[in-house]
Structures are given as structure tokens and as C-alpha cells.
Amino acid sequence: MNSLRLPISVMFTSLLLVLLATSPTRALTPISNDPQGFEGIKWNTALHTLKHLSLIDSDDRIQSYQFSEDTLRFANTHVESLRLLTIDGKFARVMIRYQGKDSHHAIMMYLTRQYGPVIRRPGSMMRGLNQENTWRGDETEANLNYREHGERGFLMIQSRILAPRFLDMTSDHGH
Fold it and tell me: Which of 173, 165, 8, 151 is nearest to 80 (CA)?
């Protein structure tokens, strides 16, 4: 029997999306000025053409890149990892992992400056063991998940048009 293996990034991302979608304390904020990409790189871009990026992982449909200078920084703070992903050769997603309250504070400040202040639903908490925020524009969505216990955060910024292809790929392998 031939078993199919999904890249860990696809499995982790799918699990994270399920967790984000079922969170009762999630805040959804509209993005007033959608950047239509990340750090000046527009969604749909063929990342292999950019000299300041290095390919670090690849399979049939998904390629993972990092910045060549390998400075693991985002929002003027150190992060554990920063990956740019393409699906079918098109830039579709950024995944950032970080640790620490100071990094979380810097990233939240950056996100509120870039995308807008967090809009809380009635009954949601400003602080708590699990903080989840979503900013949604016409083309871009940013999902931030921070766990107070362990001070670990995960930020996913993605194309709203291309990101569903990751889920389609997961369901194609789920037979």
C-alpha cells in the first residue's frame, strides 16, 4: 500500500486554520489599506525570480523560501522562523513563528499600524491564555495566534484568493 505524505507545513497550517476557525475569542478586523502581499512582494509573484530569497523546501506543488540574508526579523524583532510559501509557483502565504512577550508586543504594534486596530467582539478578552486576532482585506488575511503559556506565537499572512488551494491539496490527499 502506497501512503501519501503531506509536507509538515501543510498539515500544521491545516490544523491551525481549524483551530482559528473554531475559536470563540477570535477578533476580526477589516484591513482598510490591503497591501496585496508581504514586504512589497505581491501575491501571485514567482518567488524563484527574486534574488533576495532562497528555496529551502519543495515538493510537487508547494515551495518554501526564506530571505537569503537569513536575518530572522519581522516587525523590528527577532522571530524563530519566517517562511514564504508558493503553491503552483505563485506566492500565497507567509508563516512566522516567534517566542516571548516582547516579540509579541512588537508584532502586535506592527500589525495594528499596518492593518488597523483590533476590533473586539462583545464578550471577547483583550488578554488571556490564548489570543487570536484576524485582519481581513480584499486580498490579504493575517491570522495571529499567541499562547500566553510558553509565550509562543504564530502569524500567518496569506492571499485570500490563493490560500484555499492549500486546503484543496490537503483534502485531495485525505482519501
Answer: 151
Rounded CA separation 166/173 (Å):
11
Considering only CA atoms, which of 130, 158, 128 is closest in space to residue 143? 158
3 domain residue, yes or no: no
Looking at the DSSP assignment, which residues form a beta bridge with residue 55? Answer: 65
- pTM of the predicted model, to two decimals? 0.79
Radius of gyration for the chain, computed over Cα atoms and rounded to the nearest angstrom: 16
State the Cα–Cα distance between residues 160 and 100, nearest whole angstrom.
28
Q: Is residue 1 part of a domain?
A: no
Considering only residues 167 and 63, tell me which one the structure prediction assigns the higher pLDDT. Answer: 63
> Is 92 a domain residue?
yes
CA atoms within 13 A on the CB side of 43: 18
Query: What SS3 class is residue 104?
Result: helix
pLDDT (0 to 100) of residue 132 = 92
**Phi, psi (deg, nearest 5) at residue 105:** -60, -45
Distance from C-alpha of 112 to C-alpha of 147, rounded to nearest angstrom = 19
Beta bridge partners of 36: none
Ramachandran area for residue 86 (φ above 0: left; ψ -120 to 50: alpha; else beta): beta
Domain membership flag for residue 50:
yes
Structural domain span for residue 31: 8-172
Query: How many domains does the chain contain in total?
Result: 1
